[in-house]
Write a structure and sequence with these properties.
This protein has 182 residues and is of the alpha+beta class. Strands 4, 5, 6, 7, 9, 10 and 12 form a seven-stranded mixed beta sheet that branches. Strands 1-2-3 form a three-stranded antiparallel beta sheet, with no helix packed on it. Strand 4 and strand 5 form a beta hairpin.
């Protein structure tokens, strides 16, 4: 049951996002244009865990006019390895250099509309190297007890889908006991 793509035209393009109308035909013959959001690359998010706590940033998102906790994350630059992007984004957003990253999983957060893949990594501890290099990313950076995550989620203090997916995964597999922050 594979759809046939007959072509694609962009209605908006920028370095950050593009919107296309894709001429598709579904099995059985119906043909129509489907909106698709094209992203220039993958994204990477990092769960930094040490001593039963996870490193989170607290920030406001103007698009939804919401404020909450998120894992450090951002886009993978052209030619950059997703693991490198995870290290870079964590350091830029938190001021903490994560320990070695291990791949947990990758997924498409909105597979019916957006082509961006989100890569989730786990870091075993981190070293504090200074203040975040981009002060516009968050108003706070804190180590939060993993045991507090369900309450934060229930109260709506974690609403970012990328972070929710990663942190629910962390709760499911159990936070690593090793790792220390320095």
């Amino acid at each position: 049951m594979r759809w046939t793509v007959h072509g694609e035209r962009f209605v908006y393009e920028s370095p950050w996002v593009s919107v296309a109308l894709v001429d598709v035909e579904v099995p059985g013959g119906e043909r129509f244009e489907h909106h698709v959001v094209r992203m220039p690359g993958d994204a990477a998010g990092v769960m930094v865990v040490a001593d039963g706590r996870v490193l989170l940033i607290h920030r406001h998102r103007f698009i939804t006019d919401s404020t909450g906790w998120e894992i450090p994350a951002g886009r993978v630059e052209r030619g950059e390895d997703p693991i490198e992007a995870g290290h870079r984004e964590t350091l830029e957003e938190t001021g903490w250099r994560p320990g070695p990253l291990t791949v947990q999983f990758s997924y498409f957060p909105s597979v019916g509309l957006i082509d961006q893949r989100f890569n989730i990594f786990l870091a075993d501890g981190a070293e504090h190297v200074g203040e975040p290099s981009d002060s516009s990313e968050s108003d706070r950076v804190e180590w939060i007890e993993v045991s507090e995550l369900p309450g934060l989620i229930k109260r709506g203090e974690i609403q970012d889908g990328y972070s929710l997916t990663a942190l629910l995964w962390l709760l499911q597999i159990g936070a690593p006991a090793q790792g220390t922050e320095t």
